[in-house]
Known about the structure:
Blueprint: H1 2-59, E1 63-66, E2 83-85, E3 91-95, H2 97-108, E4 114-118, H3 131-141, E5 148-152, E6 155-163, H4 169-172, E7 182-191, H5 192-250, H6 260-277, E8 281-288, H7 291-298, H8 300-317, E9 323-328, E10 331-337, H9 341-357, E11 360-363, E12 368-371, E13 375-381, H10 382-385, H11 390-406, E14 412-414
Parallel strand pairs: 13-14
Antiparallel strand pairs: 1-3, 2-3, 4-7, 5-6, 6-7, 8-10, 8-13, 9-10, 11-12
Helix pairs in contact: 1-2, 1-5, 7-8, 8-9
Amino acid sequence: MINRYIGSFIISLVISVVAVGAAAVYLRSDISYTGLEVARLRGDSIAHIVQTVRRWNAMHGGVYVVTTDTTPPNPYLDVPDRDIIDSYNRALTKVNPAYMTRQISEILAGSQIEAGLTSLRPLNPVNMPDDWERKILNRFEEGDGDTAVELQGDVYRYLAPLKVKPECLGCHQKYGYELGDVRGGLSIQFPVNQIESLLGGIISRSQYLFYFAFCTLFVTIFISLSLFNYFSLRLASSRKQEEKLLHQASHDGLTGVFNRRGIESLAAVEFINSVEKATPFSVMMIDVDHFKRVNDLYGHSVGDQVLICVAREMKDLLREFDQLGRYGGEEFIVLLPGVGATKAGKIAERIRETIREVQIDVESAVSESSLKVTISIGVAERGRGNFEQLDELVDSADQAMYAAKHRGRDRVVVAE
């Protein structure tokens, strides 16, 4: 019983670990996917702001700012009015969307969010793409995807395509771009901890949930298996007890062979089979000679030993499907399905000869020695006597047995 509970504990533990572990792996994967989607939304928001500012700049044909060391004239802007002098005699330079984005990226450099332009055909070498940006830009030009986001180390990288709009044609048309073409991309990156801080509550709560799920699942499985083991043991014990009672009801308590009730039930079945299939069926009635004398001389305990020994020896000589039963007192009956009278007589002779040679060790109040006994056997076959009832067949074998006794015992008589 203890081993069953230990087994239940181990099985419960294994199932719980596997189930909760699989759920944790799935959730971890789902959280990673959610992290990418949150990063995409964050990138979309930043890109939308930058794109809006760039579009405002383009709609006004660029904006003028005071020329300084940090904002010198844009060497990549080829327009006649790039540099002017205002009414205050200040030198102004035109800042187009690309130059403005570059200025913004320099301000953001080293902060929690970095942004910049990139292109497969940049005018400014600073905007040359890296390997990841080149791969994504090629996909954009092939029409594959609106944005891209990927976790690289401890940062999320985001890239959105920059397409030529009507207000962009003034500058870009001379470089061969047409309306709707992808002229580059807006590259944004931010640290992963910004996303993890948003998802931290989910991760923390999921850990507690997994602990709770593990404990609940383990206890549930353990209790279920324990109850199953308990009731299965009860059921097995009940079945064993039932089988024991059935065996006791159909078997002789002394010799272990079938009792009269059990052997008569088997005989009825064999008799019907013999009639329906037209096959031979023989019966032996066997009686231990002078058994009363054994009881009188040695006592009933020795008589019991004799019966046990005779039953054991006869059972060893029979086929697996032959049946032996104690019919009453010192009388035994043997059922021989599929056997005719002639063969049954030979089997009976072999049994008789074996029994008469057996030395039976006995212990009694009188002495400790060994003795020999003999048996008388009557044989009858269903077909030979055209018996229509089992009782007639058994009576015929019984009469043959008594004939063997009248003829001097220790012999076999086959009913004619």
